[in-house]
Backbone:
């Protein structure tokens, strides 16, 4: 047996509670998990906020190992009942308010869901885990972000697991608060929490408020492509399928109490990314209102407190758990654009009045 196999836990089917499973990464994770762990039971708990979409999971509705529950992670009695009723042994916690621009417009929901919601889950799971005799195979995976580490200078080393926390937006500050709670539950109670800090994801089911889907959809609609500030901000892009594989190895082989950074090794300036999206869209889309679509690029007022650069050093998860990203940025962008081209019925209804009002308040 290799040391990699030795670290793996029992192969008994898991009973997984996925919070935020109707959102972008959560729904990709649920599809991934149901595909790769067919004997496991998967229960999604999601409040279906503007970012949650039941249709993301529609093809799983007839799967007897899958259940969807609409509810709020801040609702303690609901969370406790669900943990008990479904005899949950694994929590994969994605539920969050996730968009930086919305956190600037209205931080309240971010503190409520990201801090109080995570606390509610941790505290409910602690009692549930106590009742299970502190079973060492239980896991609480807390999915977090690289934004908790703040902003890098051009020559700084990418974020490692020991980089100091320095969150700059209400979103990242609320995620940092939730990370500290997850850490404290391990150190104080010995509860088997693991935290992952991941870079920018992209792929199918990505809500149109974020840079990549917003750019793709605006190209298709012939609308301006807003680039904040000078467009020189850098993000490290990770294909969402690679993220799901990373979370699988963390759940099954990660060490309780540890944190793991997950990144795509794909640092790109925003303006270069938008140019790439325009180029690939021009190649793949049969009809476009404006071609070449780069004519739509429009520099707009910068985001308040805009972090300049994020980059992840993913050495720990590579050396300890054997994970590396597989998708190239070029391949991932092609696949993502194909998905938005062939799933117009998915994104059209999301451009609702609420979305138009939000859009007007950010880009006015
Ligand atoms: P998302 O906004 O697409 O989805 C969030 C989901 O959580 C939605 O389905 C929403 O309905 C649900 N939700 C919100 N508040 C809730 C509540 N109070 N109770 C129950 N459900 C609630 O987010 P995402 O982009 O899929 O991100 C998922 C997680 O991954 C978040 O914790 C985020 O901080 C983290 N993360 C995201 C990225 C990224 O690039 N998107 C990168 C790193 C980490
Ligand atoms: O780094 C991980 C984080 O990535 C996650 O924790 C967040 O949940 C996720 O939303 C994402 O945050 P960002 O703020 O980096 O993603 P967003 O897609 O909003 O923006 C990416 C970059 O593009 C950022 O530098 C801001 C810029 N941008 C964004 C939008 C929406 C623009 O220039 N124009 C835009 O219209």
Residues:
């Amino acid at each position: 047996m290799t040391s990699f196999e030795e670290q793996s836990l029992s192969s008994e089917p898991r009973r997984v509670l996925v919070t935020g499973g109707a959102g972008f990464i959560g729904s990709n994770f649920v599809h991934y998990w149901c595909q790769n762990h067919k004997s496991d039971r998967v229960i999604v708990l999601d409040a279906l906020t503007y970012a949650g979409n039941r249709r993301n999971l529609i093809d799983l509705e007839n799967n007897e190992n899958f259940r969807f529950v609409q509810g709020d992670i801040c609702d303690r009695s609901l969370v406790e009942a669900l943990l008990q009723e479904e005899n949950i042994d694994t929590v994969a916690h994605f539920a969050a308010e996730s968009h930086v621009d919305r956190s600037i417009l209205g931080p309240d929901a971010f503190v409520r869901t990201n801090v109080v919601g995570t606390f509610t889950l941790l505290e409910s799971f602690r009692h549930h885990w106590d009742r299970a005799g502190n079973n060492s195979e239980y896991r609480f995976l807390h999915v977090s972000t690289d934004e908790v580490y703040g902003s890098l200078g051009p020559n700084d080393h990418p974020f490692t697991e020991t980089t100091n926390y320095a969150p700059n937006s209400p979103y990242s500050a609320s995620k940092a608060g939730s990370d500290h709670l997850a850490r404290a539950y391990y150190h104080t109670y010995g509860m088997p929490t693991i935290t992952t800090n991941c870079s920018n994801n992209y792929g199918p089911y990505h809500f149109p408020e974020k840079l990549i889907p917003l750019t793709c959809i605006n190209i298709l609609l012939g609308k301006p492509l807003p680039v904040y500030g000078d467009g020189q901000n850098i993000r490290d892009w990770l294909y969402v399928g690679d993220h799901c594989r990373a979370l699988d190895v963390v759940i099954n082989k990660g060490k309780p109490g540890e944190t793991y950074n997950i990144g795509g090794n794909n640092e790109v300036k925003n303006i270069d990314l938008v140019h790439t999206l325009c180029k690939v869209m021009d190649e793949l889309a049969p009809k476009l209102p404006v071609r070449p679509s780069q004519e739509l690029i429009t520099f707009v007022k910068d985001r308040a407190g805009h972090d300049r650069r994020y980059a992840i050093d993913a050495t720990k998860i590579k050396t300890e758990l054997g994970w590396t990203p597989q998708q190239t940025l070029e391949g991932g962008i092609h696949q993502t654009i194909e998905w938005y081209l062939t799933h117009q019925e998915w994104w059209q209804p999301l451009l609702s009045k609420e979305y138009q009002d939000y859009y007007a308040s950010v880009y006015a």
Notes: Residues 3-206+237-268+304-328 form a domain with the Rossmann fold fold (CATH 3.40.50.720). The radius of gyration is 20 Å. The CA atoms of residues 35 and 222 lie 37 Å apart. Residues 108-131 form the longest helix (24 residues).
